Amino acid sequence: MRFQLIGVNHKSAPLEVRERLAIPESRLPDTCRDLTAYPGIEEGMVISTCNRVEIVAHTTNGHADLRGFLHDHFHLTAAELDAHVYEFREKDVVRHLFRVASSLDSMVVGEAQILGQVKEAYATARAVGAVRGQLDQLFSLAFAVAKRVRSETAVVSSSVSIASVAVELAKKIFGTLEGKTVFLVGAGKMSELAARHLMAHGCASIFVANRTYDRAIGLAQKFNGQAIRFEDLHNTCDRADIVITSTGAPHAIFRREHGEQFLTRRKNRPMFFIDIAVPRDVSPEMGKLDGIFTYDIDDLQQAVSSHVADRRKEAELAEAIVTSEVERFEARLQTLDVVPTIVSLQDHLETIRQAEIDRVRGRMGPLTPEQEMAVEALTRGIINKVMHTPIATLKTAAKESEATTVVEVVRRLFNLHDKEAAPPDKKNEVETRH
Amino acid sequence: MSLLWLRFALACYFIGLVYAFVAITRTSDLFSRIALHAASLGMVFHFVSLTELFLSGHVVWASVHNGESLLAFLSMSFFMLIYAVYQTTSPGVVVFPVVFFLTFVAAVDEQPVLLTQFVSHKGWLAAHIFLIFIGYAALLVSFGASLLYLVQERQLKAKKSASLISFLPALEVIDQIGYRSLLLGFPFMTLGLLTGSVVAISTYGHLDFLDPKILLSLLMWVVYMVMVFTRWNSGWRGRRAAFLATFAFVAALAAWAANYFSAIHRFAAS
Lengths: 434, 270
Description:
The complex is a heterodimer.
Chain A: E1 3-9, H1 15-21, H2 28-37, E2 41-48, E3 52-59, H3 66-74, H4 78-81, E4 86-89, H5 91-101, H6 113-127, H7 134-152, H8 162-174, E5 181-185, H9 189-200, E6 205-210, H10 213-223, E7 226-229, H11 233-236, E8 242-245, H12 256-265, E9 271-275, H13 284-287, E10 292-296, H14 297-307, H15 311-364, H16 369-398, H17 403-413, H18 424-433
Chain B: H1 2-25, H2 29-55, H3 64-86, H4 92-107, E1 113-114, H5 122-158, H6 171-204, H7 212-234, H8 239-257, E2 267-268
Antiparallel strand pairs in B: 1-2
Helix pairs in contact in B: 1-2, 1-4, 2-3, 3-4, 3-5, 4-5, 5-6, 5-8, 6-7, 7-8
């Protein structure tokens, strides 16, 4: 098990750092390719969401320089990055990935999005051939674990959505949402959901702006609102009380000077900005203005998580599932190591059996089909009985540290070394068979 | 006897005072209900005390004792009015301590009286005191609201999870309470000052603008007007509004304190 993982998430790094590491979707395939081309890395995958950027790799010797890769790739110095980074190896990588996929490591434990995001990252890496063998198995299992957590615990079902928290915050500012105006800047599932919630709570009208005007028109129709050209965004924005923004812009599109204009035109009536974008669309400077309230994704999720009291119990249950799955995976991986020996042992005995039957058949003369079957059953039965204990011992030993010794003894006893010179692709075949 | 009722009221207001301190740190629905009932009961006692005083025939509203009692009662009425409209006890955080303090002072026996023996228009004087006191009560609530606005704004800006369960009403609601109190109080304050001027002119023949009482009252009125204007014209709220409200409140306190050293409008031992 030569897995390694390096990354930053909402716990280890502030949004400012995560912004710099975020990899846009379009560049993910290239990053995966770069990763697999890096020395010591056999397979690699990149997960980049608004709360985390993680590099997972299956390495040749378990000591690949993932930190070096991060520094090179993002042009960051060790001083800028190292304090915010966490690293895992081997079993800990497995546990971490299981937790991430099951949404136990999320800022909002149980939020449903992360699994989809990891699946997308996996599909991307797989498409460029960066994920093939071991990582492939690891992630397939991670998805299975996530499914199990979802079906056996209530962690995911009790998830409180960001959207409803946005509504609650808006009410904390405006009291009632009756007659308030919403501005939807950029598109995205989460921002649309938030807009829908706000409308359901009484907001009267909605503006929609998008880089692509046609898309804005489409969205506006969906909400029965008004499409605004992106160039007119800053001239129109002050008419809205609540602005939901989630563009892919690399820099803030709402800056302090915009905020000041809005407030003057609004006679200082407060404005609420819900900034779902990473990197952020609203500059932190603007959020400091009196009367402008900005909640970015971190703030919202924090507000969400503070809501949840009874989710902890479910999370504990989910953690137990993860732990048992990690152990199972580990056991399976180790058992895989003794599988070649078991297979060659079986092959060896089968060869002997066949040879003996052939030898005796000449003396016995022709047999009826029934007799043929009886001989077959008899010989097979003997071999299986004899083999049972050694195979069981091998499998048990596999889980303990002396696995190699036991394997060695069995090989010597049955003189399997000569036969072990099997071609490597045959070995692979054995592994995948299990 | 009137003093006894007032002391009962004081005991009730004490619960409100405790509420004011507790509410700052945590939210408790039960406690705010208790405080509300205590305050209502206190008002009943207070009302009895004032009525008895009035019926006794020798009421002197211009005494510190009676004046402060009246101001406390009016402030409490204002609080109840807001509660009726907005269903929130949070302005109590500011109103209760002030009411308690006023009632406490009023319930102590010493009663210096304003030099009103020369005043010829007793009716005008009573009108002056009532109007000005309603103005004061409105100013107090408006001042309280602007402080609460600041607190709520801070909480929302700090993005602490507590902001979701805070005892305060929505920011806009606090803002409305403050602004409406301001608008409601302004005419009373203005009329109060006008009637006061009438009384002063009829008593002394002219207005001495250099007298600290008149100067400070005027200052208070100007700040009050600036508050209403900036709010109406450019929607000033938050920090700037709180600054102005504090200024107006301090000016009001100073105008009150001027009763101790003004030549024309002062307390004297009865």
